[in-house]
Amino acid sequence: MITGKLLRDAFVSSAYVIAEKKRSVDELNVYPVPDGDTGTNMSMTMGNAIAELLRMPDSCTVSEVAETTAACLLRGARGNSGVILSLLFRGFSKGFAGLEEADSSDLIRALEIGVKAAYKAVMKPTEGTILTVARLSYEAVEKSSDEPITLWNIVVSASKVALEDTPNQLDVLKRAGVVDAGGMGLVIIFEEMLRVFSGGEPRKKIEATDGWTADGDKSGNATFVGAVSVQDFSSVVGEFDEVINFTYCTEFIVRKNADCPDETRLRAFLETIGDCVVAVSDDDIIKVHVHTDHPGKAIEEGLLFGSLINLKIDNMRFQHENKAREAALVKETDFVPATPEKDFGFAVVSSGRGIEELFKNLGADTVITGGQTMNPSTDDILKAILATPAHTVFVLPNNKNIIMAAEQAGKLADREVCVIPTRFIPQGITAMMNFDPDADFETNRMNMIKALDNVRTGQVTFAARNSDIDGKEIKQGEILALDNGKMLLSDTDINKAAGKLIKHMSKKDTAFITIIYGSDIDDEKASALETYVKNRYSDADVMLVSGGQPVYYYIISVE
Amino acid sequence: MIIRENYMGKIGFSEKYIRSLVGRILCECIGVSGLLPARLRIGRWFLGTGGNAAHSDRAVTAKVIDGKLIIGVHIAVVYGSRVSAVSESIVGKIKRAVEERTGVPVQKVTVYVDGMTD
Fold first, then answer.
1. Same domain, residue pair A438 and A547
2. Contact B33 A121 (CB under 8 A)
3. Considering A136, A471, B5, B111, which has the largest number of Cβ atoms within 10 A of its Cβ?
4. For residue A542, what pLDDT band results from cuts at 50, 70 and 90?
5. Same structural domain for residues A492 and A432?
């Protein structure tokens, strides 16, 4: 028979165990999303019941225990797994209603009610989750007539088998090579209940986070036990002493001897050799912390009171210097985002001094250096976005390989970001020219995107290696002319190629021809091309700009 | 129609699609025991139809404001579940699933708990 006390201890103990193991359950999560902290959610859900349960006397009935647990879990349920857990425990509360003690048939009924309630809570239950584990555990004992402990043994082994099988039912689990996290949590709870049912000593606290003896909280388990670990403790003390009077921070724990004197005597001694003295004790130990120039003396004195554990001595002056150095380093690289001052701003990707100037004159707030063969990273773009002092930032990638990175960066930014998919520098220039500071966001966005179609961009560059494009054989070093990114022709002379390109791109009604020449072209050569174009297209406005861009000899836009 | 643009072109999602998508996701949400029609808030119209995905879109409203989606869902919860936990989980799940599948940012998800089942 399961008594009220036994059930209470089992529930409390399993709540502690799931809290201890929550990190390993969290790690099974397939989706790294905020509500995917299955272990944490389950431990917090269970943790709600601990305080209430501990207040119950040993004479309590199973009915009272189950009802209290269910009520607490309902109030504290967090996340999907928490909700399911609370429904399963509600099964216990219903199944044990009015009972002093529970036998096998009561346990089976409790499981049945819990599992059915959990299945009812979702219209299309997904198999391979905590639901499946709960259901198969119940089905394993559905017709059993064993005594309670044997019965629960079967439940635990069935739940383990079901858990092992979850990857075969859910593809995401299989691909990630894990079992279901919620199911794992349930198995942990069932297992601990079995241990307590079969006479195991119930847990009294979370073992790994025992505040006095833990060497730091590596497993991240301190949740609802208000203990302070040694490391937390020292950092709290450390915060308040800015002036270092003594060199060594000395900490240790004294395990009291049977004839241990009062700890105030230890404290009195420590006050004479240093400052920041802490000496607190409970029945078994004294926790000691002191800043002193003579740690040896503190330790010797401590030995008079008992044996020492967890000794830690740090040179604070040395630590302080290191910290100060680290802080200085952080300060240097620390990036401060600009506070938004205006409605709209521009972050532009470009290469070449001349083109950067051009964009700045047009009103770009930040210019990210990059382009063909040197694409900026998402992080670079994000920094530029954050450095733009505007509520809404338009990003002009000016290269088709950068558009994706820019969109990524936009998602990470704290302000409104709109990526205008400009594929070439001239498109970026046109987009900025079509920007109207008085218009609203949507109008501007549409205007800029529409304007992109009206620009035709020609580029003159060289072949980086021998290749074959669209049936044309290209030799390394040959001059290539590209029309809107597509290979048009090859030539041996740069200006000739540019001339042919402009001829191909221009139409009868061409009004503007802009020629941006790169860092590899001297002014003379550029003006020769300008004169040639001006003579040929007397109706069009021809503009020559020194862009200073690498890779492309000429970037030509025709409107 | 919700239009999304990238450098290769335009992608349009009909509101019907968004509503069906959200409806199907709702059927898999833990704590949702039924759906209620958004425009007819009386009766147990298709409460407890066993997750009939064919009609689940009727429990969902979707509209677009400034290129962002605003979604409303009308559900019934099971008795004994914590409604705030269920709702939070639904909001997160819908936002994530819609943004992942369509790329359209979700501005807001409103959960209307219109009914309860045993």
1. no
2. yes
3. B111
4. confident
5. no
Cβ–Cβ of B80/A87 closer than 8 Å? yes
- Using CB atoms, which residue from B67, B85, B96 is nearest to A78? B85
Are B32 and A75 a contacting pair at CB < 8 A? no
Residue A508's domain comprises: 456-558
Give yes or no for a contact between B117 and B37, defined as CB atoms under 8 angstroms apart.
no
ipTM of the complex: 0.70
Predicted pLDDT of residue B50? 43
Angle at A254 (CA atoms; ends A253, A258), nearest 5 degrees = 155
CA closest to A72 among chain B residues: B82
Share of chain A above pLDDT 90, in %: 17
Distance from CA of A345 to the nearest CA of B (A): 19
Span A400-435, pLDDT tens digits: 778 878 887 888 788 888 889 888 888 888 888 888
Nearest-CA distance A335 → chain B (Å): 27
Could you give the CA distance from residue A61 to residue A97 in angstroms, rounded to a whole number? 10
Tokens of A281: 């004790």
Other CB atoms closer than 10 Å to residue A465's CB: what's the count?
Answer: 8
The span from the CA of A203 to the CA of A30, in Å, is 30
State the CB neighbour count (10 A cutoff) for residue B57.
Answer: 22
Contact A83 B31 (CB under 8 A): yes
A166-191 per-residue burial string, b: 16 or more CB within 10 A, e: under 16: bbeebeebeeeebbbbbbbbbbbbbb
Mind listing the pLDDT tens digit for each residue in A93-128?
A: 999 999 999 999 999 999 999 999 888 888 778 888
Inter-chain contact B32–A122, Cβ cutoff 8 Å?
A: yes
Sheet holding A285-292, edge to edge: A274-281, A285-292, A248-256, A306-315
Q: A90 at the B interface (CB within 8 A)? A: yes
Burial B94-116 (b: 16+ CB within 10 A, else e): bbbbbeeebebebeebebebbbb
Does residue A243 surpass a pLDDT of 60? no
The position carrying tokens 């450098």 is: B7
| Same domain assignment for residues A177 and A122 | yes
In a domain, A24, yes or no: yes
**A34 interaction partners in chain B (CB closer than 8 Å):** 92
Residue pairs between chains A and B whose CB atoms are closer than 8 Å: 84
Please name the residue that has the structure tokens 């009935």.
A61
What CATH number does the domain containing A178 carry? 1.25.40.340
- How confident is residue A197, by pLDDT bands cut at 50, 70 and 90? very high
Measure B105 CA to nearest chain A CA, in Å: 10
Q: Domains in chain B and their CATH numbers?
A: 2-117 (3.30.70.1350)
Are A14 and A92 found together in one domain?
yes
User: From CA A195, how far away is CA A191, in angstroms rounded?
Assistant: 6
